[in-house]
Design goal:
With 271 residues, the protein is an alpha/beta fold. It contains ten helices and six strands. The chain has a single domain, classed as Rossmann fold (3-Layer(aba) Sandwich), CATH 3.40.50.720. Helix content is 46%, strand content 14%. Strands 2-1-3-4-5-6 form a six-stranded parallel sheet, with helices on both faces. Strand 1, helix 1 and strand 2 form a beta-alpha-beta unit. The longest helix has 24 residues. It is globular, with a radius of gyration of 18 Å. The termini are far apart.
């Protein structure tokens, strides 16, 4: 449909085919976009991003999203590659050392907690700050970050990542007001279904979360490809007046209290 024909974008966070960012990159290019891929140097060594770069005919620029200096070099490099400004950015970055080491919330390692916030949330502010200060975004551009319902509701096992996602969503509103006022750029977050990415699989009880969400959601869980398609609509000109929103993309899960499928599970357990 060429929804993104002639548009240029930066995709953060693709690691392998499980990554939502990987699927977003493929979908954006399929819709006519030119993209630059980026991740940390370590992730680039460990992952399969070179394969994605070939599929998308896209350059890869290494950047640590927590480093303003790296982000400045990334944005400069992307604009040099595109020969102009940027139309869309996807922030798909998140990691918690506390989650990885199974440290419970009530006993958080605070050095790890600071890293969780810096990597998973403050990095989003840094990305937007660099884009803003460099006047790097075209008018009616779109910045999207991925989040999760645990920012609003307690989800066992999500730990300090929930706090990071709450901060991320607040940043989208705060910076969205400024970006919209000054440059007509929109900023939104997508609250995605639990998705078995490399990072997602590190969350304790991920299989149970997936099964429960599937049973609760009238439309079932949204997978990475579904999320990619939704991102494309937010990058496109069809959503020019959508900004500062946390948009649920979860098959209806976030509006449910008790589904018939879950009710039947508990009813059967009674017998």
């Amino acid at each position: 449909m060429n929804l993104l024909k002639g548009k240029n974008g930066i995709i953060f966070g693709a690691l392998n085919e499980q990554s939502i960012a990987w699927q977003v990159a493929l979908a954006a290019v399929e819709q006519g976009a030119n993209i630059v891929l980026t991740n940390t140097p370590l992730a680039l060594r460990m992952g399969e991003v070179d394969k994605l770069a070939q599929l998308c005919n896209a350059p890869v620029i290494a950047a640590d999203a927590t480093s303003v200096e790296d982000l400045e070099a990334l944005v400069d490099g992307a604009m040099a590659h595109f020969g102009g400004k940027i139309d869309f950015v996807l922030h798909s970055v998140g990691m918690s050392p506390n989650v990885r080491k199974n440290i419970p919330y009530q006993q958080l390692n605070y050095d790890f907690f600071s890293k969780t916030l810096d990597i998973s949330a403050v990095s989003f502010h840094k990305v937007m700050s660099v884009l803003y200060n460099k006047r790097a975004m075209n008018e009616w551009g779109s910045i999207v970050a991925l989040t999760y319902l645990a920012a609003q509701r307690i989800v066992v096992g999500y730990n300090d990542m929930a706090d990071a996602k709450a901060l991320l969503e607040s940043e989208a509103r705060s910076f969205g007001a400024i970006f919209g006022r000054d440059f007509k750029v929109r900023v939104n977050t997508i609250s995605q279904s639990p998705t078995p990415t490399t990072a997602g699989n590190g969350v304790k009880g991920m299989k149970t979360m997936l099964d429960f969400a599937q049973a609760m959601s009238p439309l079932g869980n949204a997978d990475a490809k579904d999320c990619a398609n939704y991102c494309v609509t937010l990058f496109s000109d069809l959503t020019r007046k959508v900004t500062m929103q946390n948009l649920y993309h979860d098959g209806g899960f976030s509006s449910m209290g008790l589904s018939e499928a879950v009710y039947e599970i508990f009813l059967n357990n009674e017998h």
